[in-house]
Each structure stands twice: as C-alpha cells, then as structure tokens.
Amino acid sequence: MKTILALAVFISSLHGFVHAQNIIDFSKIRTPIIFRGDYKFAYRDPAVIYANNTFYLYFTLCENSSDRGYYSMIAYSKSTDLIFWTYPKAISPRNRNLNYSSPGNIIKYNDDWVICLQTYPTPMLESFGNANSRIFIMRSKNLEDWGEPELLKVKGNNVSESEMGRMIDQIAIIEEPFAEELEIDVLDIPVRLAADESAHTVDDAIKHMEMGYKAIALKAIAKTLSMTMKIAQASYERDVPCFCADLTINPILVEWNKNVAARLKSFP
Amino acid sequence: MGSLGLVESNGHQNYKNWDTMMNYHPRKDGAWVKQKNGVYELNDEFYKTSGGIFDPITHYEGMFLPS
Question: Measured between CB atoms, does B26 come within 8 Å of chain A?
C-alpha cells in the first residue's frame, strides 16, 4: 500500500483559506506531495485547518507490521508556508484494538478545538475495521495537545456502545457558523451553508439567501406553520432547497414537520 | 419516486418516555408514524388527515382548564 498525501486537501477553515490566499506564494510550491508512503508507512485521510497563521494537517498514519497487519494512528504536521512541514507526530495511541483513524473536520466550539475521528479495530489482522468501529471526538486548546478520545453517542444516551453498531467516516457540521448579528456574506464559501436559527421570518430568510446561504432549515414548530409556508415559498422561488429541522419534539409535532417535508423538493 | 423531503427527527433519542408520548398521538397506528429504515412512508391517509395534526389531542387538551 503506497499512498501519497497531496496538497489538494479540503481547507476546513474557510475564513482562513481566504486569508491564506493573500499570504501564501502558491507559485513556490513545487510538488503536491507532502509525505510519500513506502513499504512501512502510509499517509491517508487528510484534513487541514488554517489557524494562528499556521496550517495544521491531520491524517491517518498507517504502519504496516511484520505480521501482515497494520496500526492506524491520528497524526499531524504543521506548516506556515505549505512548503516546509514538521515531522508527523502521532496524537492517538498505537493500539490495534482501537486504530484511531480518518480525522474528520476540525471545528472551534467555545474555547476548544474539536476533531472527529473513528476507531478501526483490526485485532485479527482484518483488512477493514471490525464491528467495534465507532466515532469519537477529541478536544484541544491549541490544535497540538489533544485530550483523550470521547465516544460520540450518536444514537442517544440510552443506546450503549455495544449496541450502537459499526460506524465510520464521520463529519461534523455547524449550523450557522456565525453569530446572528454579524450578517456575513457567505456567497464565496464553496460549500452549502444553511440558515437556521436566524431565519425568523420570511424577510430574514430572503436576506440570508441573498447573503449566500444555499439551504434553509425550516422549523415549523418554532416559527409557526404559517411563517414556515412563507419561508418555503420564498426559498422555492429562489431555487434554494429546504429541509425540516427538529427541536427534539414530541411525536405529534413530528407530524407537523412531516407535513412540511412532504411538500418539499428533494434535498440535493 | 418523486420528491423526497428531508426531515430531522431526534425526539426518540432524547425523550425517556418517548413510547408513552407516542400514545398521545391521535393517529399513533398510522402506517406513516414510525420510520422504516430511515424513511417515513406517507400514504393517502396521511394526506387526507394531515397526519393527525388537526385532530383533538385529549392528553394535551386535558392540561388546560375548561373555559
């Protein structure tokens, strides 16, 4: 298995990317290869974020072992110019019963950076992670020192880890990444951002669509069915897709959302 | 299959008494009420009754004093 890690990785800090375009001399980058794999090591699943004038690159560091098995770890490297990168440093244990791997996106939540990751256990020398593969997060204050992995109980607190089932390849999203009052134009961000909490009225929704939001989260319970119909109509006229977001509601209120969702176009 | 609307639903993950709350649903036995493999299969009855959202809901009405 020979893998190269290329520069064509997703810049998950979109603000940072715009900023970086102004300070990085891309013409000086002579090769897209950052780390070249060999018989022993492979570098996979890159995820990069730009913060503190530095690119932090996280990836799966795979180490082939002599018993034909392998170990997977989360590792990182950093660079200020996209040319020189620090030596990879593992931030998760070398343990085949866990095989932490596949870092997802990195988001800032309050004072912590949060990274998504998975386990991919191969204790019997399996090629793929076994049924115990699960999804975790880790937290950091500085993008370099990370806490212990924390299991994400994505099926609710009442479902135990053993009952959760196999799950891999996680990605976290933030609904409305900016504070409501900021009114930042997001038209140049090359991903679909959804307006959610701040779309109180049809006028708010229209304003957000004009600011570049490419999806609207409808909340029929919070905003009323009447207002939701108006927002859905305005979105339809602008070819902006909608979906119905829950508020952890009771079963009959789920029917409210179903009534709205039943009349929406498919979400792209 | 035509349009397939997207709806997030997480109450069953968060409410301890979800099954009890389901009994308050005026059309709890409707074929569309529970998801099947992640899909709510809406039928003619759902569209005729709007899923029950305009039906009397005895449990919740009982929380208010009669006028």
Answer: yes
ipTM, two decimals: 0.95
What domains does chain A contain, in order, with CATH numbers?
A: 4-163 (2.115.10.20), 180-261 (3.20.20.120)
Looking at per-residue confidence, does A230 or B36 come out higher?
Answer: A230
Give CA–CA dist B53/B9, Å, rounded.
17
Residues A62-84: tens digit of each pLDDT = 999 999 999 999 999 999 999 99
The three-state secondary structure class of B22 is: helix
Residue B51 confidence (pLDDT) above 80: yes
Spatial CA neighbour of A101 closest among A123, A116, A85? A116
Cα–Cα distance for residue pair A195/A92, rounded to 1 Å: 35
Whether residues A257 and B9 touch (CB distance < 8 A) is answered with: yes
Contacts of A158 (CB under 8 A, 6+ apart): B13, B16
B39 and chain A: CB distance < 8 Å anywhere?
Answer: no
pLDDT digits (tens, 9 = 90+) for A15-66: 445 555 567 888 888 888 999 999 999 999 999 999 989 999 999 999 999 9
Say what the pLDDT of residue A177 is. Answer: 66
- Owner of token pair 């800032």: A108
Angle at A70 between CA A64 and CA A74, to 5 degrees: 100
Name every chain B residue with its beta carbon within 8 A of the beta carbon of A265.
Answer: 3, 5
Rounded Cα gap, residues A98 and A172, in angstroms: 21
